Structures are given as structure tokens and as C-alpha cells.
Amino acid sequence: MANILVIDPSRSMRNTLKERLEYEGHAVEVAEDTISGMTVYANRHFDLLLCGQPDSPLRTSTPWIRLSHDSSPESAVLAMQQGAVDFVTKPINMNRLLDAVRKGLAKTPAAVADAADEAESVPEEVVPVRRVRAARSHVGRIVGESVPVKRLNTLIDKVAPTDARVLIMGANGTGKELVARWLHEKSRRRDGPFVEVNCAAIPSELIESELFGHEKGAFTSAVKQRKGKFEQAHNGTLFLDEIGDMSLPAQAKVLRVLQERKITRVGSDRDIDVNVRVLAATNKDIPREISRGEFREDLFHRLSVIIIRVPTLAERIDDIPILVDHFLETICGEYNVPVKKIEAEALAELQKLPWTGNIRELRNVVERLVILCENTITVDDVKMYANGLQ
Ligand SMILES: Nc1ncnc2c1ncn2[C@@H]1O[C@H](COP(=O)(O)OP(=O)(O)OP(=O)(O)O)[C@@H](O)[C@H]1O
């Protein structure tokens, strides 16, 4: 759980963010402008700030995320220059925001100190490697003993040590990102960086600079040279999440990098060699996107040397008891309460539900049950709380 301060002029935005972040287990305070925000800030410790106020930049050592209606590259670059750790455009894509929050929290002094363990005596350039190693030990297990999960694990073990590109396909919340992380963990690149890009969340004007970087002066607000994600992932893995949502012009540029293994920063004419393994994921039906002219067929073939299909939870309901046990243990641990039990009948009831949100939805339901139920979760608890409407 973290303490988060949301500063935004819109009441509905403040309420929505507060509700959602509290649902994720964080303690949230809100303020409508930077001045009142700073008063709240002065009286309490915060781990992260979300700032939707377009006025003066926040002067704080706490990581902060800019929320903005303006999706231009200039606006994003300006926010980064002002010290924001991330930039999320409005209307807010909640998955993208939660992802940014998770990453922002990893940048709090406590998290960095954690990750860098005995970093005091370590030269600065070594710290990022330590962070990568610390992050690695946090990659959760792929829990499950059903046939589809056994197949998935076997495939990961076979494919990970190769440098083959992998396209991970599956519905939302099935664990595609988890699969990508394990493909990196079990590869020879495991000591290199794992860099993730959410292609759906980056406005098309920004994607080139985000992926390939830019030179100083490439556009009005490019006052500093910046490395893009491909360069950041050099000798490691680049995970292009939601690739099915990437614009056609950006697809053409990515295709060129995959063919030539070189990138060119925006505003430069110099090619830079990059050694990157690309993994991509999508919840879209790519062949259908190809037939509709929304996705380049040549890029699809470049990306999909191997295709891994991640099963839905409905295809693996046998795993629900073991997943529930796993989530009860981790969530009760996070809330610092004794691990709750669940009746067999309650588990059977959970197995009857449709689970359109897959494992992410199951995790949310278990968290809700942990919060709302006594020490033993009963079938009536499941009936009452599992659909989230109470
Ligand atoms: N087999 C599994 N065992 C344990 N936890 C899992 C498993 N699969 C997924 N999870 C957890 O479920 C949540 C959703 O997984 P993940 O983010 O990897 O899904 P995704 O398919 O990438 O989702 P989206 O398409 O919405 O981005 C995460 O908290 C992840 O750790």
C-alpha cells in the first residue's frame, strides 16, 4: 500500500482516481490545485503524486506523474524535463495509469534503496544492474497445474533461451506480461534490461521519439538528447505490449528496425546498431486486423517466429483453487493479516463464474473477499461479493 496524492482541477477525475487507487489498496488524498496540494503534501508523507494541473511544475523529491489533455510530444517532453517520472494523457486509460503508478512507486526512495540493497558503497553506474536484478526476483510465479498451463510452461522453457521473436496472444488479464517477463528471465539476456512499452498508451506523434529517442533540437522542446526504448533495451529484451494498437506509420518504423537491427534517433541521420530481442503481445485478432488493413502483414511475420497463446481462465478453471490459495497468501501478506481460509463450496461457486476479466479479475475478487469477509470465506460471501456490485 502506498500514500498517493492526486492534484486535479476536475472533481470527477479526482473522485474516479481516488476510488480506483483505493480499490488497488492505496491511501489517497486529493486536492484541486497545486497550491492546496502542496499544503496537503506538507502535512503528510506521500510516495507518489499524480498531477493534472497544468500550472507550475511541482518542486518535490517525491516521484510524480503528469496527467494531461495535451498529447503533443512537446508537452510530454516538457513534463519529463520538469521531473515527472511519467506522462499519461486524458481521457485516462486506467490500465495505462495503473501501470504508470506501479512504475512510479518503484522509483520512490524506499523502493530504490530496497532494490539497490547495499548500494551505498557501489559506484553509480552499477546501480541500474542491481535494480534489474532486484526487479527480477519479483517476477511472480506462473501459478497453475492444468494442462494448458503445463503446455505454456513447457513452451516458455523451450523458447526462452533462443533469440526468437515471440508474439504472445491472449485476452486481457490472462498473464501475457507475466509470460514476457519469464521469457526474459529464462533467457541469456536475463542480466540485461527488460524494457516495456505500452503501444496503446503512447500517442502516435510521440511514438517515434519514445521508441527511437531524439537528438537535442529535433523539435521545439527537445532540449536534451534522449535515448529511446530500443537503445535502452540494448543487450536485453524489448516488450511491445498491445502491439495491435500501434499506428500504421509506427509499424513501418518498427519493421525497419527488425529488418536492419539499427535505429535512427529523431533529428539524426546516424544509424545506431541495437542488439535487442523483441517480444510483443496483443489481445487483438491480428489476422483479422491484417485483413482490415489495420496491421501490416510483413510486421506480423517478423514478430511471430513463435506464437504463444495464453489460455483464458475459463479454459483452466481447474486452476482456480490453486490460484485462489496463491492470491489469498500474497494479498493477506500485503494487508498484514493472517491468511484467510475458503470453504470448498465457495471455491466451487467461484469456478462457475464467467471470468471475462481472467486472472486479473480473479485477483481483484480475492482481494475484495479478503477485505470484506471473516477468517473463513463462505459460499454466501462469494455469492454476495464476487460480482463487485455490492
Ligand atoms: N498464471 C498466473 N499465476 C499467477 N498470477 C498470474 C498468472 N497469470 C496472470 N497473473 C497475474 O494476473 C495479473 C494480470 O496479468 P498480466 O498483466 O500479465 O496480464 P495481461 O494479459 O498482460 O493483461 P492485459 O492484456 O490487460 O495487459 C497480474 O497481476 C499477474 O501477475
From TrEMBL:
InterPro entries, sorted: AAA+_ATPase (IPR003593), AAA_lid_NorR (IPR058031), CheY-like_superfamily (IPR011006), P-loop_NTPase (IPR027417), Sig_transdc_resp-reg_receiver (IPR001789), Sigma_54_int (IPR002078), Sigma_54_int_dom_ATP-bd_2 (IPR025943)
Q: Which SUPFAM superfamilies match?
A: CheY-like, P-loop containing nucleoside triphosphate hydrolases
Every Sigma-54 factor interaction domain range: 142-371
Q: Which residues form the Response regulatory domain?
A: 3-105
Q: Which UniProt keywords apply?
A: ATP-binding, Nucleotide-binding, Phosphoprotein
Q: Name one Pfam family in it.
A: AAA_lid_14
**Gene3D superfamilies per the record?**
1.10.8.60, 3.40.50.2300, P-loop containing nucleotide triphosphate hydrolases
Q: What is this protein called?
A: Fis family transcriptional regulator
Q: Which organism is it from?
A: Alistipes inops
